[in-house]
């Protein structure tokens, strides 16, 4: 699954944001997300599973708890994808800027 597809979901995006602050238990992140999005613990667990299966997070048992951490390699991959889009956006924005300047010049030349 494409990284941007994974992060297209606001719940998963929020989970990634929470884990970017540091390792946390499933219960800790679940409480925050349940409160903010009004969803159940099993729904949060499904989102964590999607993140884990996609390689965004890793988990380890710690007693009766599961501790989740964000995989740093995923952030690098996301940055690569964003950089690719940024270059496309910059090209298009540069072209738009050129067209706007042409339009302004043409209006000045045609104004009596």
UniProtKB/TrEMBL annotation:
Q: Which domain of life is it from?
A: Bacteria
Q: Coiled-coil ranges per the record? A: none
Claim: DNA-binding is one of the keywords in the record: yes
Q: By its UniProt entry, which PROSITE patterns does this protein fall under? A: HTH_ARSR_2 (PS50987)
Where would I find the HTH arsR-type domain in this sequence? 1-90
What's a Pfam family this protein contains? HTH_20
Its keywords, alphabetically, are: DNA-binding, Transcription, Transcription regulation
Q: Which SUPFAM superfamilies match?
A: Winged helix' DNA-binding domain
InterPro entries linked: ArsR-like_HTH (IPR011991), HTH_ArsR_DNA-bd_dom (IPR001845), HTH_MetalResp_TranReg (IPR051081), WH-like_DNA-bd_sf (IPR036388), WH_DNA-bd_sf (IPR036390)
For whether the record's keyword set contains DNA-binding, the answer is: yes
Name the NCBIfam families for this protein: HTH_metalloreg (NF033788)
The protein's name: Metalloregulator ArsR/SmtB family transcription factor
UniProt organism field: Leifsonella bigeumensis
């Amino acid at each position: 699954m494409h990284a941007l597809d994974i992060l297209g979901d606001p719940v998963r995006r929020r989970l990634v944001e929470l884990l970017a602050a540091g390792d946390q238990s499933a219960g800790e992140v679940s409480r925050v997300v349940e409160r903010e999005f009004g969803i159940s613990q099993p729904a949060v667990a499904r989102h964590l599973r999607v993140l884990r299966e996609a390689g965004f997070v890793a988990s380890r048992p710690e007693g009766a708890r599961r501790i989740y951490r964000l995989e740093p390699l995923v952030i690098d991959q996301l940055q690569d994808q964003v950089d690719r889009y940024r270059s496309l956006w910059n090209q298009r924005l540069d072209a738009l800027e050129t067209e706007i300047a042409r339009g302004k010049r043409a209006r000045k030349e045609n104004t009596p």
